[in-house]
Amino acid sequence: MDDIAFLEEFISQSKSDNLKTSHFPSTYGVLDFKVSFGMGMPAKISWVAIYNDEIRINKGFHPVYLYYKKQGVLILAYGIMEKFVDEITWGTEITHSKKTISSFFSEALGEKPFRYGDSYVHTVYNVNQTGDSINIQRWNEDSTLSGEELKTDLDDLVNYYLKEIDPNKRIIGDSPLPTNLFYMENQLEDFVINNWKQTQFGVEYDLIYDNGELISQQYKTDVGIIDILARDKKSGSYVVIELKRNQTGDDTVGQLLRYMGWVKRHLGDEKVKGVIVAGKYDKKLEYAMEYAPVDTKLFVYNVVFELNEL
Question: pTM score > 0.70 for this model?
């Protein structure tokens, strides 16, 4: 996206009863893009979220514009979804240095925000609309911001977000090329399957075939889909392999144990093993692994990208 023309349209439509959003873009660079004006009736706060869906669902944080229509205040925020307010989301660099929206409202407006007070402020804007003309200024400043200035603010936050979820991505400039982390989990899965014999997995485990057809990948169960189901070469026990393209936490252990439990019950394997493969992991996973079954392993992958002249 070369500009943020959507922003003026978003502000203008926020003041109407029109709740339709299909005419807005669906992506911003490599990220998803979603607009909301309310469900069934106009909301007091309309928003634009820019996010990676996996992080948004599991961790609940993403860049967001929040338009407080009554106050005429637009906030570009380090957004935190309300059901995640008690979780660790944005890093301490943000949580220890940025004001919450609640703090801004209290100090600048002498009131409480209607919602989203736990999100952190990146930039606050005054919004003034006269007819079809919309002027956006930084809080307590008089000069109207250009589209390029507004885009710089947004890209600063989006790039920070990308750095949080994957240290090797950018949206400014050329299309991003991840250098040591996969962008999608299915890319990681395909890579492991296609290079099975060249990995440590190929040394210890066998992929499973049925009448010559590979059934190990995306193995379906009634409690979800196992990324890769293999068998130990020596013992013959099943091995459940869960792949996470980026950082993972203790919730992955619960997912892995669920699949191991299914294999134990439905495939009759009392000695089923579990493997987690991730780009990196957090302290929660490290501690959870302390009490994971003995036959549960954690692998951290790294991909090296090379160019060789012919």
Answer: no
